[in-house]
């Protein structure tokens, strides 16, 4: 029952609808009291031989009237109570999605995609059930139960009623004992469902790798393990739930036995008429449904409560990103001053960056290179404010980047990540994703900078070509270039390319770099790359290894250093030359 008080914020908000709904249920219950009473009255008239045709027609007319009234009242409560439950579903879904949008990288590392999807679907459905069928079952069983008990006492006999309902106390005891167990069982069942979701998501996304490595059978066996666990958890919860109904039948049976013995004796001793006993038994029959409903009510409430716990836990997760104490309202622009004394990832104590400092003036281009795992992406992560907690400071135009509102700050950055993501829509909308009002000319210009315009022109449907999961497949290089076009479209103050030219050939790479330089004379650019030719023309180049700067200078200065940059540049140049020769012979 605690779930009702935890959802009280919603019931308060929709109190009018719920009040009308419960009122309609009350009136339906009042309507239900009438037919058994009519039956009793008619039976008595028959046994006393006083039944007339007019009396019969009047009672039949009354029955019809009550049936029509009941129809409209049922429509009303359904609209009010079930309608409200869908409002709760919408509110929770929107809150959860808004929360997902707000959360940082650490959150997405902690929670698996399948978990998040299970919360957004199954758990919300279970909570909606509380606000719809749960409220209905509770109100209806209480109203019907109490009104039937009242009618049994009022119209027949209070003492007999008391004896007949005495066994029902057992049901309350049973509900109390099983309640907590059902809650735990549902928690496990929902967690197992999350695991299945996660497994399905991972297997579908990684299907190519799975097949390539011939791991389908192993993966199916793993999947079967998750399903078995889920079924085990479900079986347990349904076993507990199934204990309710047989017990309810036994309790109702005992009540009937008591009624027939004590009611029969009362008729023999003329304390009640035979018609009143018929009415009493008919009221008892009406009581059967609310009794069975208590079983399903507990199922709904415990399931909803377990799911609400899971959703609340998720909504309670806080983003580790800093909310500015002295918010800077101006647009972030000016020189970028990066001074990182120490940084480690939240879940890892190893120092990822150690004394990394640089200043990048407006309009300059900086390259970041270095051995794999050296710290290039970490520098970019910090610039992108994936993490706000570190020993150091990053300023733009002398303002700490954490003093800008996150959206304002990120709006000034065009970012092309290592892994590209295409949305399931056409190429045009994929390019203008961050600025959907961009004109056709702006989209074409962005595609030109990314050297993608000719590829698009060759596609049968040009900019209308559908891409993403449901569309045509683009090559790795095309995906990278589309991501670049998306990032340059809004002409950002800072453009960051994180190893995003790796899948294009050297000629295309040169084209893109030249066009970026021409079109972004005032814009600042950072290029992290494995291929040194990508940063050759940069105003300054950082070489990072083991989280620290091992070389810093221009291309010429670094060559003169005759260190890692010099060695790697020569090695890559030789490889490129060899590849070129092989290609020309092939
Ligand atoms: N999310 C993370 N949590 C914990 N450690 C991380 C995380 N991301 C990176 N690291 C670690 O930080 C170090 C630097 O990694 P980073 O990705 O910045 O290197 P990189 O130079 O970009 O490498 P690559 O060229 O292979 O992309 C590595 O030791 C890596 O294992």
**How far apart are the termini?**
76 Å
Helical proportion, percent range: 55-70%
Give the CA-based shape: elongated
- What low-confidence regions span 5 or more consecutive residues with pLDDT below 50? none
| Secondary structural class | alpha/beta
Q: How many independent structural domains?
A: 3
Overall pLDDT level: 87
Which superfamily, in CATH terms, is the homologous superfamily of the largest domain? ABC transporter type 1, transmembrane domain
- Radius of gyration from CA coordinates: 36 Å
By DSSP (H or I, 4+ residues per run), the number of helices equals: 21
User: Could you tell me which ligands this complex binds, including any ions or cofactors?
Assistant: adenosine-5'-triphosphate
Strand neighbour order, sheet with most strands: 6-7-8-3-9-10
Return the CATH topology of the largest domain.
ABC transporter transmembrane region fold
Please outline the major beta sheet. Answer: 6 strands, mixed
The appropriate CATH architecture of the largest domain is: Up-down Bundle
Domain ABC transporter: 338-571
InterPro entries: AAA+_ATPase, ABC1_TM_dom, ABC1_TM_sf, ABC_transporter-like_ATP-bd, ABC_transporter-like_CS, P-loop_NTPase, Type_1_exporter
Subcellular location: Cell membrane
Domain ABC transmembrane type-1: 20-303
